[in-house]
Amino acid sequence: HLPRLHVEPDLVAGAPLTLGKEQSLYLAAVLRKSVGDEVVLFNGRDGAWLCRITADSKKSVGLDVVDRIAAQTPPSDLWYGFAPLKSERLDYMVQKAVEMGVGTIQPVVTQFTQNHRVKTERLQANAIEAAEQCEVLVVPSIAAEVSLGQLLDGWPTQHGDRKLLFADEGAASSSPVVALEQLRGQRVGLLVGPEGGFSDKERTKLHGLPFVVPISLGPRILRADTAAVAGLAAIQAIIGD
Ligand code: SAM
């Protein structure tokens, strides 16, 4: 396994490239890579490229772009909305969402949301790190935080015919399978609530909207981060990306 890093510049065969301070330090000091060692770079546009280190200073690692080893994949269409949790669990949720193949990560502020100060840059950094680790070639985009009301009012305009799967521990059936099988081939998003769940008012509103499909993830109350992984896994397994 070669180290994989996300970079911004275009990746073109034969072109030299210099990494920034942080990535250089990581490669040269943490991974102890030196001249002649190979690394894989991707930028979300040009696929994955095998690169060879030509200069190994801790401040600036230079590389030659050698060979394209994977074609660019299209971005995922899967949307994931969540009420921001406290920092550590938030990091975990972003990491798992990337592993589960999400294309857009959308923080949604609900009535019982405890963390109102989401640091988008931190979420973005986590998403990049997760994409590097799980060999995703497009880093999911992190959308600007919205309130639940704004999200629902704007849904038909912004999402067209996309269905919003609402993870609802009180949903009628205790299995998501039937609901998800009916949505095969359709564009979907998953919405998961905060530590304290959705309020009764919010649940009533969600249940009354034509584009919302409540789904249960089993008879137990899952932590919000677990519900996200379970919901995304069920969507990927039954509907696909
Ligand atoms: N107090 C715990 C925590 O700290 O995470 C549990 C919170 S649970 C109420 C958070 C969210 O996970 C809910 O709003 C819902 O979206 C989702 N959830 C949890 N269990 C679920 C289930 N069995 N079915 C569907 N969604 C579930």
Classify the helix fraction into a percent range.
Answer: 25-40%
Share of residues in strands: 15-25%
The secondary structure category is: alpha/beta
Summarize model confidence as the mean pLDDT: 94
Distance between the termini: 26 Å
Give, in order, the helices and strands. Answer: EEHEEEEHEHEEHEHEHEH
The oligomerization state is single chain
Unreliable spans are: none
Q: Please tell me how large the radius of gyration is.
A: 20 Å
Main pleated-sheet profile:
7 strands, parallel
Separate helix tally: 7
Choose one word for the global shape.
elongated
In short:
The chain is of the alpha/beta class and 241 residues long. It has helices spanning 21-30, 87-99, 120-134, 148-159, 177-181, 200-207, 224-238, and strands at 4-6, 16-18, 38-42, 48-56, 61-70, 79-82, 104-109, 141-142, 146-147, 163-167, 188-192, 212-215.
